[in-house]
Amino acid sequence: MLIIADNLQITHPEISAAVQQFRPGPIQEMVSRCIEAGAQAIDINPGPLPREAEKKMRFLVNAVQEVTDSPLLLDTTNPDALEAGLRVCKNPVIINGFSIEPHKLERILPLARRFDADIVGYLLMDNGQVPSDETDRLVVAVELYGAFAGTGLPPEKLIIDPIIAPVLWDNGIEQDRAVLSVIRILPEILGYPVRTIAALSNLTAGHCPRAKRMLLETAYLAMLAASGLTMVLLNVFHRDTVKTAKTCNALMDSKVFTWEEIP
User: Fold this and answer.
1) Which of 27, 63, 202, 210 sits 20 to 30 Å CA-CA off 76?
2) Does the global pTM surpass 0.90?
């Protein structure tokens, strides 16, 4: 699993202020800390950017790529901001992302073709709602893949996010069991080795005691890894979660085991 830091978010007060004031220092410090903590890629999440969207996204991408050559995920629903970020991005880049919602098919998906970029596809209904079960997720996956195939890009450029649900939802546990099954089944349904991504922080959204949050994250992360997840978005400052990801990688990816691979 590729470990992607989800820490660079506009909801962080210091990051929000830095973006508003176009100060790269706090952003670059955050990114450097993420890389040191084990991040192999950085998700840039500035929110919808209602004002100065293109200028702010260019600023963010340039600030981040000055301190790392790691892959960047451009994570905003604003298509103009996405395009601006893609134009200046020199690092490997992933658009995060699109769904079968009509406005995203119209405005965001074509950017993958235009910039020859990898793109995350969310398994969301065309009204933006999370599918209720495994069957509905797979139906959406087939439709999503069909829309992506229309771009002419190779299927390997699509990365599917089956959408982890907060466990506090009424059917959260059932939804998250379905996510594991969908990850396992997708290659058979779509007929190729599907890459997948999941946002682990969604699992414990809402009020949760820290110790129990960490335990839940690590347990479910191991289950995701066993199901074949390719990439995981997580808070890389949760040390035990990162250690679990690295240990899963050592157990699943290594041909010859060595203790040095265990963090």
Assistant:
1) 210
2) yes
